[in-house]
Amino acid sequence: MTRIGVVGATGAVGTVTLGLLTERGFENVRAFASSRSAGKQVPYGRGELRVEEADAESLGAGDLDLCFFSVGTDASLELVPHAVAGGTVCIDKSDAFRLTDGVPLVVAGVNDTALDHDEIVANPNCSAIQLSCVLKPLHDAAGLSRVRVATYQSMSGIGDSGIERLRATAPAEGDLAMDWDMEGDEFSEESKLRAETGKILDLPDLALHAQCVRVPVLVGHAQAIWVETVEQLSADAARDALAAAPHVGLHDLATPKDAVGRDEVLVGRIRPDTANGTGLALWSVNDNLRKGAALNAVQIAEALLERNLIPA
């Protein structure tokens, strides 16, 4: 039986991860968090798990086959190497290893073939997961030449602090935010989205421009996407390609609320781009805590098990 650890088990994504592992019947699961949360109990199935402190000793003890990391970049950089040294395969959800050469950056249903006998698998940025699920079937159908995307990202994308901030905000005081660090003339989120999408799709030179904004929504990221393809692709053909894709569902007027609790990336408003005679415009929404984070990581684990890359 696969021995599984969830690091960051008391946070927003860690909590969803535990719920998904329960739903999928994983039994040998342990919960880890910082020293502040050690000793607490978290729900798991019909019972509870005692939270253990996530430190070098506990994670490097060699008694875990697989470990999900739902913590910040600095914590992952510190703790993941200890888990790897103990023989554990690590699926990391921070940006610590996403663009590291030799570390696969995987979206389940898009580039599972990137998985090999890897010690670390990186879970992409939530927006890159959502975008890649939409772009892959279009690329397979007609080839991608240029992509523009505007993202409308929920407050839970920040984590627990974003959730608390929104809940403390009066409805009439909600506002848009641009709360990422600047890298030159763009946000770090925008450059990550371009670089990660290129790595996931194995299109490092893909022309992709992003405009990212934070919106006063609790859960659910939205994206307006404009795509130009190498070969002409009609809206009907694009709709057919997306309908056949794993982890994509057609929903013409989807809102973030429609996506909450759903495993699929919902895509709609597929139509010709009237500003470009050969392009398409699309709209997508996704539960950023499920497919955008926890679910994708669990699906990566299931793919590793199917390929016998970790003990079953």
* Head-to-tail CA distance between termini: 5 Å
Regarding CATH, which class of the largest domain?
Alpha Beta
Second-tier CATH architecture of the largest domain: 2-Layer Sandwich
Specify the number of helices: 9
The percentage helix is 25-40%
What series of H and E elements makes up the topology? EHEEEHEHEEHEHEEHEEHEHEEH
CATH topology of the largest domain: the name is: Dihydrodipicolinate Reductase, domain 2
The low-confidence parts are none
What's the structural domain tally?
2
Q: Nearest-angstrom radius of gyration?
A: 19 Å
Strands of the widest sheet, in order across it, are 3-4-2-1-5-6-7
Supply the CATH superfamily name of the largest domain.
Dihydrodipicolinate Reductase, domain 2
Please explain how this structure is put together.
There is one protein chain. By secondary structure, this protein is α/β, with parallel strands linked by helices. Helices cover 31% and strands 26% of the residues. It contains 9 helices and 15 strands. The strands form 3 sheets. It has a 7-stranded mixed sheet with strand order 3-4-2-1-5-6-7, sandwiched between helices. The mean pLDDT is 96.
